[in-house]
Amino acid sequence: MGQDQTKHQIEKGLHLYQSNQTEKALRVWMRVLEKSADPAGRFRVLGCLITAHAEMGRYKDMLKFAVVQIDTARELEDPDYLTESYLNLARSNEKLCEFQKTISYCKTCLNMQGTTVSLQLNGQVSLSMGNAFLGLSVFQKALECFEKALRYAHNNDDKMLECRVCCSLGNFYTQIKDYEKALFFPCKAAELVNDYGKGWSLKYRAMSQYHMAVAYRKLGRLADAMDCCEESMKIALQHGDRPLQALCLLCFADIHRSRKDVQTAFPRYDSSMSIMTEIGNRLGLIQVLLGVTKCWMIQKELDKALESIEKAQELAEGLGNKLGLLKVHCLCERIYRTKEQQRELRDHVVKFHECVEEMELYCGMCGESIGEKNNQLQALPCSHFFHLKCLQTNGTRGCPNCRRLSVKPGYV
What we know:
InterPro entries: Postsynaptic (IPR001237), RAPsyn (IPR052480), Rapsyn_myristoylation/link_N (IPR019568), TPR-like_helical_dom_sf (IPR011990), TPR_rpt (IPR019734), Znf_RING (IPR001841), Znf_RING/FYVE/PHD (IPR013083). It is found in: Cytoplasm, Cytoskeleton; Postsynaptic cell membrane. The chain is an all-alpha fold. It has helices at residues 3-18, 22-35, 39-56, 59-76, 79-95, 99-110, 116-135, 139-155, 159-175, 179-196, 203-218, 222-238, 242-258, 262-279, 282-298, 302-319, 322-339, 342-359, 388-394, 400-406; strands spanning 377-379, 385-387. Among the domains are: 158-270, Alpha Horseshoe (Serine Threonine Protein Phosphatase 5, Tetratricopeptide repeat), CATH 1.25.40.10; 281-361, Serine Threonine Protein Phosphatase 5, Tetratricopeptide repeat, CATH 1.25.40; 362-411, Zinc/RING finger domain, C3HC4 (zinc finger) (Herpes Virus-1), CATH 3.30.40.10. Strands 1-2 form a two-stranded antiparallel sheet. The relative contact order is 0.06.
């Protein structure tokens, strides 16, 4: 298959893919991969296959094609191709919750500077790295990466990237419980979709609606949460977007649990768990298991709650997800307090405080914890964040956290 024919077949596959005929598109692209002798064409078709498998939640296949793409990029001996293939490798590992590998591949991308194309990809690299740091609950570095990605998006006038970063920032602020910002950022993403997204994939609209639903639920606006989640789910079903379907089912379950409708919540958690297991989203599975635990606690089935939470703990330890572990210890503390098992209770109290220290989840001004309840937060340029009211009350001449870290022990 020559260069022109390769190009024509790739375009044919893209047309089929955009018309929601995914399996036909995949067949066309696989044929190109088998028959084309043009390395640049093969590189491009591998990019199409990586994107399609990512959107379908076939993350292991995504990774497999990313590895082949690296070999093709080496064959082409072009730094632009190599940077793009390492970014795809990073994103494949991010989807499979291999966060340390993601960070490592992102750093490789950033060290391969040289051309304009590589520099344009830096925003996407920073976003992927931020998502990985967030998966590990390294909040300061995650925020640093997201802000860097946002700067790249603004400098390159890349509205699609800005939309994606806003959704990740929504997720970031949901995790540390500043629910106003958790809603503000996906609303900003939805605005970008409305203003600029005419030719974009509908997944951007679905993504912003999902993150809005999560924030609305946290704010107790359950009807608004349900509306946004239903819209997101409708698009996810139309486009066969399995990862988003799993997240929407989790959100539906959480909404029902918030309404104390445990019987409706359980089957939604089960459906979400089934898809999360199938696609390999272990971070999502932790959230599902924590939700199931809370349902059992509402029903006062404490032994069943402990069973679920044990699985969540195992996953969180495996991933290095510190916030997941903190939530596990917090729920265990409540369960063992009810069961009046003092030794286990003390054990989880100690581990809970160790997690708080490790993640620096406290305000460097008042010393009170961050992420325990809904609170307005403000980040300084160094990406350390504090209670907004503390910054307004005390003001700041530089960051107290950075000052503390720079204090060197004197000679004895």
